[in-house]
Amino acid sequence: MENLIEPVVVRLRPKAEDGSRSSELGALEADPPNNGDNSEKAPNVEPKGGRAVQAVLVPVKRQDHLGLISTTALIINKIIGTGIYVSPQVVLSATGSKGVSLMIWIAGGVMTWAGLYIYLEYGMRWPVTGGELYYVDNVFSKPHRFFTYIFASMFILINGVQGNALQFGKEVIIASSPSSATINKNLEKLFAVLIITFVCQLQAYSRVIYVRISNTLAVLKVFSLFFIAVCGLAALANSRAKASDEIPTPYGREDLSNAFSSASNDPYQYGLALLSVMRAFLGYENANFVLTEVRAGPQGDERQTFRRAVKTSVLTTCFLYIMVNVAFFAVCTNDEIINAPDTLSFFLQKVFGISKQATIGSAVMIAFSAAGSVIALTFANVRVKQEIARMGLVPVPEYWSKTSHRRTPAHALFLHWIFSVICIAITPLSNPAGFLIMSTLYSYLHTYIGILLGVGLLFAPWIKSFQVKGEKWKPQSSMLGWWLLAPLAVIYVLSNAFVLILSWFPANLQSVTRTTQQTLPYYTGPVAGLGIIAFGIMWWTWDTYILPFLGYRFQVKESEEWSDRWQMDILCLNFHRTLDDGSLSKRVVNFCSPIVRWLWKYVSREPAA
C-alpha cells in the first residue's frame, strides 16, 4: 500500500476561472486545491533515485460526453433498482396502514430532495471525476487524508452491486423455472457473477455501446413503473382484464376505503418503514462521480446539464414511486401485499388473472431493473476506483489508474470485478437475513459519508477549501441560497443520523424476512460496517506512519502532454518510489537482492544434456 506524499502537478496550460481547461484534458482534472485558490501550483520537485513508473489517463472526447438524457438515465438506473418492488411490502408490514405508508413515501421523497441539493452544491463547487472522494479529501483535510482512506476502503471493498446482481440471478431462475421449483443458491450466485462479468467486459470494450444500453434500460424501467401506475388507475375505476380465474378479493376503491385503519402504534416500526423508503431512493448522487464526463452547459452556466438531469431524474422517480404504491394499494389488500412471496407477481395476477405469464413478466421486469442498476453503479464506481488509484492509495496504482488501449478504465474495472465477485461469494444466502444484510451494507456505510458531507456544508461559509480565489463561498444550487440550503442540510444530516442510530436497535430479522429459521444477529451489518471503517483507519496508519518509519517514500507527479497517438492532451502519472539510505527496509533489500538474483539464475538455468 502506497504512502502518499502530496502529488507534484505540472500544468502546461492555465485554468480558466471556473477551473476548466480549454482542451479535453479538463475531463481528467481532479486535484481541487485545499486552500481555495484554484491557481496555486505545487513546486516542481524532481525526486532522486528510487524507481519510477508511469500511467497514462486519456480523457473522454467532448462529443462523447454525457448529455441530458444519458446523465438522467445514469441517475434513474441507480435509483430505480429492486427496492421499489420490495419496499412497499416492508413499509406496509411495519405500519399496517396504506395511508400511513403513502405518507412515509412522501416523507422519503422530501428527504431525497434535501440530499439532492447537498450533492448539487458539492458538484457545482467541485465538478470533478471522483465525487465524494474529493469532497471528503478537500473538506476534511485534517488529519491528512484520514477520511479519504476510510472512504477508499468502503468504496473498494463494498461497492453496492452485489445486492442487485444477486437479485438479477434470482429473477432469471424464477423466470425460467416451474412455479414450485426451489431456487438453487449457488446457481443464483453464478448468474450474479455472470451479469457482473458481462457488464465489466462491455464497459471495457466500448463506452459508447455501454451508455446506449444504459439509456435503453432506463427507458424500460420508467415504462415498467408507468405501466404499473396505469394498471393502478384502471383499478381505481374498477377495470381489470376479463379472466375465468380472477382472485375474488376486494379490488379498486374498496381496497382504499379504510386507508388509515389498523395503523401501528409502535414508533420503532415507523422508523423501520422510513429506513426502507430512504434506501429505495438512494442513487441521486451517481452523476457526481463522473461530472467531468457530463456535457458542459453554456458559458456562465457550465453545470446546467448536471443540474437539470439530477432534478429531472429525482422528480420523475418520486412521482413514479408514489404512483406505484397507489397502484399496489388499489389492487391488493393489506394481507395480500404483506404475505405475497412476490408483490409484483401477485399484483399482475390480480389484474390479468392467474397465470405463469404473470410470474415470468414480474421476474423479467425486476431482472431488467436490477441489471440497469448494476450498469449504472459500475459506470460510476469504476471512475472513483480509478481516481483512488490516481491518488496512490492502493498497491500498484500505476496499473489500476491507467486507461486501456480502447480508451476505457479496463484495469479499474478488473479491480471492481474482483471485489464484486468476492462480495457475491461471501453473501450467506442460506441464511434468510444474509441477503438483506449484504445488500444494505453499502447504503449503511454511505450514511457516514452523508453525515460528513452534510456537516461540511453547514460549515461551508467558514471552511477555507470552499472559497474560490479567496472569495467567500456562496451557494449556487438555488436562488434562495443559504436560506434554503441550511435547513435542507440539517434534514439530510438528521435523516442519516437516524439511519445509523436505528441500525443499532434490536430488530426481529425473522419478522422482517418472514421466516421461522434462525437468522444472523441484528447487529451483523453495523458491526461489519465498523470493521470496514477500522480497516480504512489501519490502512491510513500503515501508509502514513509505518511505511515512512521503515524508510519508504512515495510521490506522484502529474503532467499534461500532447499525445500523437490519441491526438489530444493526456495526463501522465509518474509514481516514484524510494527507500531511504540506511533504513531497515534498504538494508533488507540490499541483503536479499543477491540471494534472489542467484535463485532466479539457478531456477532459469539450462538443463544439463
Q: What characteristics describe this protein?
A:
609 residues, 4-stranded mixed sheet, 20 helices, globular
Unreliable runs: 1-46
Count of helical regions:
20
The run of helices and strands is: EEHHHHHHHHHHHHHHHHHHHEEH
Q: How many beta strands in the DSSP annotation?
A: 4
Strand content: 5-15%
Query: What is the strand arrangement across the widest sheet?
Result: 1-3-4-2
How many angstroms does the end-to-end distance come to?
45 Å
How would you portray this structure in words?
Residues 1-46 have low confidence and may be disordered. The chain is globular and about 85 Å long. Helix 6 runs antiparallel to helix 13 and helix 6 packs across helix 15 (410-426). The chain has 20 helices and four strands. A hairpin with a 4-residue loop joins strand 3 (552-563) and strand 4 (568-579). The two termini are 45 Å apart. It has a four-stranded mixed β-sheet. It is α+β, with helices and mostly antiparallel strands and 609 residues long.
Task: Write a brief structural summary.
The protein is of the alpha+beta class and 609 residues long. It is built from 20 helices and four strands.
Strands, helices and their partners?
Layout: E1 5-10, E2 51-57, H1 68-79, H2 83-95, H3 98-125, H4 132-139, H5 146-157, H6 161-175, H7 185-205, H8 207-236, H9 267-280, H10 304-331, H11 334-339, H12 343-352, H13 356-391, H14 397-400, H15 410-426, H16 434-458, H17 482-503, H18 509-512, H19 524-549, E3 552-563, E4 568-579, H20 584-603
Parallel strand pairs: 1-3
Antiparallel strand pairs: 2-4, 3-4
Helix pairs in contact: 1-8, 1-10, 1-13, 2-3, 2-9, 3-9, 3-10, 3-16, 3-17, 4-5, 4-16, 5-19, 6-7, 6-13, 6-15, 6-16, 7-13, 7-15, 8-10, 8-13, 12-13, 13-15, 16-17, 16-19
